[in-house]
Design goal:
Elements (H helix, E strand, L loop, with lengths): L1 H21 L16 H4 L7 H19 L4 H20 L13 H4 L1 H24 L5 H26 L8
Length: 173
């Protein structure tokens, strides 16, 4: 239990540093704004209480907001992600439920399950984020294309991070 909390704290710090120190400073273009920091929320254990997920989502988004000076857009988008996560995990759960000590990673759940889990969750987060950032539907098509491109870019980052740093044998998993 304590080891799991420690791993989650390390994961939080590393993903926030990746987002705010590296990704923020790389010009990807107008249509690609990767946000791999949401991997922290996606990889919380299945047994995490929904209220705790919402609190962690708020803290995660607020931390990124401080570095990006975005006045709560990341926080609100992360809270939406945290809220939807509970229902999405329930939708994707096997009949007998999730096994104890399993994590929502590619290594534990498989490629297909992870795509069905992470891609829609990222899309929901990004839709909420970019339309809240735009605060309207004036540039609807541009915002939609930016959302789709950024979702794809974020998913690629999240997927690559899964294979580089997480294994079943316990390295940061």
């Amino acid at each position: 239990m304590i080891a799991e909390i420690g791993k989650n704290i390390i994961r939080f710090v590393l993903l926030i540093l990746l987002q705010t120190l590296i990704i923020k400073n790389i010009p990807f273009g107008s249509y690609f704004v990767p946000m791999p920091y949401v991997l922290f929320l996606l990889m919380l254990p299945f047994e995490t209480m929904p209220l705790l997920v919402l609190i962690l989502a708020f803290v995660t988004g607020l931390t990124v907001d401080v570095f990006y000076d975005t006045q709560g857009i990341h926080a609100s988008s992360c809270v939406v992600l945290g809220f939807v996560r509970f229902y999405f995990l329930r939708l994707l759960a096997p009949r007998e439920g999730y096994e104890a000590n399993l994590k929502p990673t590619v290594q534990y759940m498989g490629n297909a399950w992870f795509v069905y889990y992470a891609l829609p969750m990222l899309l929901i987060h990004h839709l909420f984020f970019f339309y809240l950032e735009e605060f309207g539907f004036n540039d609807f098509l541009f915002t939609l294309l930016k959302t789709l491109g950024s979702t794809l870019a974020s998913f690629v980052f999240v997927y690559i991070i899964q294979f580089l740093f997480y294994r079943k044998d316990g390295v940061l998993a």
